[in-house]
Amino acid sequence: MNRAWATLHSSGLVKCLVTLEVVGRRTGRVISLPLVVVDYQGERYLVAMLGQNASWVLNVRAAQGQAVLRHGRREIVRLEEVEPALRVPIVRRYLALAPGARPHIPVDRRAPLPDFERIAPHVPVFRITAPS
Q1: What is the reported pLDDT for 63?
Q2: 11 pLDDT exceeds 80?
Q3: Over 3-42, what HEC string results?
Q4: What is the pLDDT of residue 4?
Q5: Which residues touch 86 (CB under 8 Å, ≥6 apart)?
Q6: What residues form DSSP beta bridges with 127?
Q7: What share of the chain is helix, strand, coil (3-state, %, to 5)?
Q8: Cβ neighbours of residue 64 under 8 Å, at least 6 residues apart?
Q9: Is the backbone of residue 76 left (phi > 0), alpha (psi -120 to 50) or beta?
Q10: Nearest of 69, 74, 54, 87 to residue 22 by alpha carbon
Q11: Are 125 and 81 in contact (CB under 8 A)?
C-alpha cells in the first residue's frame, strides 16, 4: 500500500504530494515515503505528523538534511529544521492540507493559533531549500 501511495505522490499529478527519498541511518539504503508539502508564505515545508521519533525525521537529521523529492521530476533538496516558535502557522496549514494527519496531531485544524503553540515543539517541520 505504501508503494502505491509513493507512486501517486511521485507522479506530480497532485501539487502538494511528493515522495521523500532519504538515506536510511542504519541501512545506508535509500528509503522512500509519501508526504504532503505545505506551501506557506512562499516557502515549502515538510511536517512530521508522527513526531520527533518518526523514522524519516531521524534519517533526515542523520543525513544532515540531504534528501530528494520526487513529484513528476527528481529534485535534490536540503531540509532545514524549523525552530518550534516558527512552526505554529505551518502546522495549522498542514492540517488543512493533510486530512490523514488530523488523528495524529491533537489540535483541531480550525483552532486558533495559540492552541498550536503547545504542540509545535513536538511536531518537526523542515523547510525545503536548495542544496548547499
Answers
A1: 98
A2: no
A3: HHHHHHHHHCCCCCEEEEEEECCCCCCEEEEEEEEEEECC
A4: 54
A5: 125
A6: 45, 80
A7: 35, 30, 35
A8: none
A9: beta
A10: 69
A11: yes
